[in-house]
Structures are given as structure tokens and as C-alpha cells.
């Protein structure tokens, strides 16, 4: 299992660590309108999925904005999701205030389905660890980054290059 810290304190990740070459696990999260969203909803597209502790923090805000800008320029063959345990209403408010349009913010607050399927659920905090996954059009994981310190930024360039390699 990946080892991560949050504010330099070790946390326990619950679920299954996802690795390059794995078939991407399905999950059910909630869209901002409370409708269910699954991995299959974006079938046939390259998926960039970023899990974050909360959109209401500086690093998560900056990360989502950065990936939003990058993905918006890549065209319609890429689906970008930011997953957190923030309530769908808070995610909707954040997107409206940030002018975000290329990202789908989805909430894992109800069942922690994504958190457990991708091994990013931090047991001690009931938050998701910061991680980035790229999944090809056939549903195979081609890039994984479990960010070692939850308050640090991911490797944006590597993730975007992994996406570009698939389109």
C-alpha cells in the first residue's frame, strides 16, 4: 500500500492500491446535482481523475484550476474528474466561484466508493488522499501518482504528458 502523510503525520489508507496496468476499478460518486456518476459514464474517453482532500484548501483549489486549464485545451476526448468528500453543494458553489468548466467535481462523501476502490481513503481523517490517475479509453490505468505528502502538489507535467500520450 502507498505510504502517505497529511501535514507530516502518517495516515492509514483504506482500500486497494491501484497500479499502472490494472483495469480501472469502477466506483459510484455523486455529481453536483446528486445524480450517480460511475467510471462507465466516461467510457471511450481518456480519464484524468484527481482525488483531493477538499476543494476548500489552497493546494486543492490550485490543483483543480491547473488541471482544468490543461484539460480544456486537449479537446473532447478527455474527461477530467476531481473527487473529494466535500458535499456536492459545496463543490457546485466552488465551481461557480472559480469559473471552472472542464472539470467534473464529484463527491465521495456518501459511500467512499472511489476512496476504497483506489486506495485513497484516509481512515484517520475521513478524507481522500491526494492522488492522480490516468485511464485510457479501454479502461486500463496508465499513470498513477499517490502524492507522498497530502499538502503537496502532484506532478502536473507528468500527469498531463500521460494524458497527451493517449489522445
Break the fold down into its secondary structure elements and pairings.
Blueprint: E1 4-6, E2 9-11, E3 13-14, E4 28-30, E5 36-38, E6 46-51, H1 58-72, E7 78-84, H2 88-98, E8 103-107, H3 113-117, E9 121-122, E10 127-128, E11 131-135, E12 141-146, H4 156-164
Parallel strand pairs: 6-7, 7-8
Antiparallel strand pairs: 1-2, 3-9, 4-5, 6-11, 9-10, 11-12
GO molecular function: thioredoxin peroxidase activity
InterPro entries: Redoxin (IPR013740), Thioredoxin-like_sf (IPR036249), Thioredoxin_domain (IPR013766), TPX (IPR002065), Tpx_CS (IPR018219), Tpx_Peroxidase_subfamily (IPR050455)
Catalytic activity: a hydroperoxide + [thioredoxin]-dithiol = an alcohol + [thioredoxin]-disulfide + H2O
Brief descriptors of the model:
167 residues, alpha+beta, Glutaredoxin, 5-stranded mixed sheet, 3-stranded antiparallel sheet, 4 helices, globular, peroxidase
**Which segments are poorly predicted (pLDDT under 50) over 5 or more consecutive residues?**
none
CATH H level, superfamily name: Glutaredoxin
- Taking strands numbered 1, 2, ... along the chain, how are they ordered across the largest sheet? 8-7-6-11-12
Helix content estimate: 10-25%
Major β-sheet profile: 5 strands, mixed
Mind telling me the CATH class?
Answer: Alpha Beta
Using only CA atoms, what is the Rg?
Answer: 14 Å
How would you spell out the order of helices and strands? EEEEEEHEHEHEEEEH
